[in-house]
Design brief:
heterodimer, A: 194 residues, alpha/beta, Aconitase, domain 4, 7-stranded mixed β-sheet, 30% helix, globular, B: 468 residues, Aconitase, domain 3, Aconitase, Domain 2, 5-stranded parallel β-sheet, 16 helices, 16% strand
Chain lengths: 194, 468
């Protein structure tokens, strides 16, 4: 995983709440056996018509979406399926952080393991972001701060371990495997065997 | 100090390295269930890093998600019935399992089926275990008093390589359902009512324990239906204390403990239920006496109403968009809405008791001419048991299609689809936009309600059709 220290970008705003992972990437794209190239399937059913042509009115197809790396979405973003294809599709499209008032558990965990930053903010901050699409904002991982263009700074929660992994580009599997001896001890000494 | 909850007991029993302020816990996983869709990239990581799969003996694989539900006489049939990508994915799973020595219950196995149907059926889902799978409906196994939750593909790789996961301790939510269910009201209606109450994000960050007299009164298949949809309320895991109902279900299952091992296991399992003075971070209660058949009206499982009650009105943009997508009018009940497709199946409702309930409604009746109905057993074992009872003949005589085991129309990636604009009454778990096919509209309901709707050609209350 690459290091992620600061994400600075204009925002894309999709204010709808409860955006599930079937919307982020529909199941028919899950027959892939790699994690690459899924950006074209991002929000496919909202983004393309039945003939596969981009719908001009959908945000991701509009000129102002080009180069935006931060998605502001409604409450409970990423609910539903455990498909890691959802953060893979967002990252491949160029989204590097998602801001919402709530982000679903599995999606949040999957995002952190891929360097997509989940940012949970209070309703007032979220409301401001929704009303000001395209605002240039900065997400600073080291200080856990979201900085708005008017100079305001809003703290967001991120656990210490995930923060360390993002800042240092640490693959969590390496950390897990550093406990191999403890895992073997656990297997050998537990009173019952699965 | 207060007593411990079921969750806390299992959590504590699996801590390899405790969590600290700076680091998550290293949690041991007793059973890793796998399928073709969420594992290819994890096997690739093992391969690229030169890692072995640590515990093939604690790993079990099946084919269900992108797997067709039409009969295959040989593997080469895949190229005829499946999309090339799906066929390639299935073949890769077969190769990966061979290379990494994982037991695959594939097309040649009489135990193949939906991953959350076969674990319990084989008796490998057991109380007190930690169970994970790259599938959010892994919560199903919590019905046995296990801590079971869905994970992403990176974590699938973590479990393959280390048999462990890095986890922060979640909060706990106790949901008590007391009272007696009325006739025609099922486990599906309980869980839909719960999700309607807490909302699709209501359980985020929590593990649910379902308790109370109505939950204790459910059989294992009904308990699985309840736990299955925990994730639709935002909770990664939902669990129910193991009891004699649990033990009776497991006794003599192929992979359940036997002899003295069985006795020792049951003695250990009896200690798992939450202590009487256990506390939870949140508690909610529901009155089972007041529940009726439930149907969803929108595009997430929290948008749900009792079948005869009007769809609520709302001004929120997301709410309006959902009603527009569904073609549903506010202030009117869902009852009577025309139906194009009925799907009975999925890890929520594809077990023998679900099929029996549907068959009881359908016996001697016909599916409405305007309706296409698919009945898809959850596993090869369910299929055989249903056929031994003649259930398939009842469905076929009524005009329904009887298929091979698989996820089928719950997830539009195996050829079973609802067409754009069509309305499907489905016993599955997600009514998201496009879940059953691009533009498909899904109404979630119990097998009873689905069967009654197939006959009426409209969303129908099953109770008038039930035998006394």
């Amino acid at each position: 995983m690459d290091k992620v220290t600061v994400v600075q970008s204009r925002t894309l705003v999709i204010p709808q709440s409860d955006i599930d992972t079937d919307q982020i990437i529909p199941a028919r794209f899950l027959t892939t056996t790699t994690r690459k190239g899924l950006g074209k399937a991002l929000f496919a059913d909202w983004r393309y018509d039945s003939t596969g042509k981009p719908k001009p009115e959908f945000l991701l197809n509009r000129q102002e979406a080009a180069g935006c790396g931060i998605l502001v979405a409604g409450n409970n973003f990423g609910c539903g399926s455990s498909r890691e294809h959802a953060p893979w599709a967002l990252l491949d499209f160029g989204i590097r952080a998602v801001i919402s008032t709530e982000i679903a558990d599995i999606f949040r965990g999957n995002s952190l393991k891929n360097g997509l930053v989940p940012v949970i903010v209070d309703k007032a901050t979220h409301g401001w972001l929704v009303e000001n699409p395209g605002a240039e904002v900065t997400i600073d991982i080291a200080t856990c701060e979201l900085r708005l263009p008017d100079g305001r700074s809003v703290a967001f929660p991120i656990d210490g371990f995930s923060k360390y992994c993002l800042l240092n580009g640490v693959d969590q599997l390496g950390y897990l495997l550093s406990h191999t001896d403890a895992i073997a001890r656990f297997e050998n000494t537990r009173p019952w065997k699965p | 100090m207060s007593g411990q909850s079921l969750f806390q007991k299992i959590w504590d029993d699996h801590i390899v390295v405790p969590e600290s302020a700076d680091t998550p816990a290293v949690l041991y996983i007793d059973l890793h269930l796998t399928h073709e869709v969420t594992t290819p990239q994890a096997f690739s990581v093992l391969r690229s890093k030169g890692l072995r799969l640590r515990r093939p003996d604690l790993t079990l694989a099946t084919l269900d998600h992108s797997t067709p539900t039409v009969p295959l006489t040989s593997l080469s049939d895949l190229d005829v019935v499946s999309e090339p990508a799906a066929a390639a994915q299935i073949r890769l799973m077969i190769e990966n399992c061979r290379e990494y020595d994982v037991q695959l219950l594939g097309f040649d196995s009489d135990a193949r089926g939906i991953v959350h149907v076969i674990g319990p059926e084989l008796g490998i889902t057991q109380p007190g275990k930690t169970i994970v799978c790259g599938d959010s409906h892994t919560s199903t196994h919590g019905a046995f008093g296990t801590l079971a939750f869905g994970i992403g593909t990176t974590e699938v790789g973590h479990v393959m390589a280390s048999q462990c996961l890095l986890q922060r301790r979640p909060r706990t939510l106790a949901i008590s359902v007391d009272g007696k269910l009325g006739r025609g009201v099922t486990a599906k209606d309980i869980i839909l009512a719960i999700i309607g109450r807490i909302g699709v994000g209501g359980g985020t960050g929590h593990v649910i324990e379902y308790r109370g007299s109505a939950i204790r009164g459910l059989d294992m298949e009904q308990r699985m239906t309840v736990c299955n949809m925990s994730i639709e309320g935002g909770a990664r895991a939902g669990m129910i204390a193991p009891d004699d109902t649990t033990f009776q279900y497991l006794n003599n299952r192929p992979m359940a403990p036997k002899g003295a091992d069985w006795d020792a296991s049951v003695a250990r399992w009896r200690k798992l239920p939450s202590d009487p003075d256990a506390t939870f971070d949140r508690e909610i209660s529901l009155d089972a006496n007041k529940l009726t058949p439930m149907v969803t009206f929108g595009t997430n499982p929290g948008m749900v109403v009792p079948i005869a009650e009007p769809v609520p009105a709302g001004t929120d943009a997301s709410f309006r968009k959902a009603l527009e997508y569904m073609g549903v009018a506010e202030n009117k009940p869902m009852l009577g809405m025309p139906v194009n497709v009925v799907f009975i199946g999925s890890c929520t409702n594809s077990r023998l008791s679900d099929l029996r309930e549907a068959a009881d409604i359908m016996r001697g009746r016909s599916v409405a001419k305007s309706v296409r109905m698919l009945v898809v057993p959850g596993s090869e074992q369910v299929k055989r048991a249903a056929e031994a009872e003649g259930l398939h003949e009842i469905f076929r005589a009524a005009g329904a299609e009887w298929r091979e085991a698989g996820c089928s129309m719950c997830i539009g990636m195996n050829g079973d689809l609802t067409a754009s604009g069509e309305l499907c009454v489905s016993t599955s778990n997600r009514n998201f936009e496009g879940r059953q096919g691009i533009g498909a509209r899904t109404v979630l309901a119990s097998p009873l309600t689905a069967a009654a709707s197939a006959i009426a050609g409209r969303i129908a209350d099953p109770r008038p059709l039930m035998a006394n």
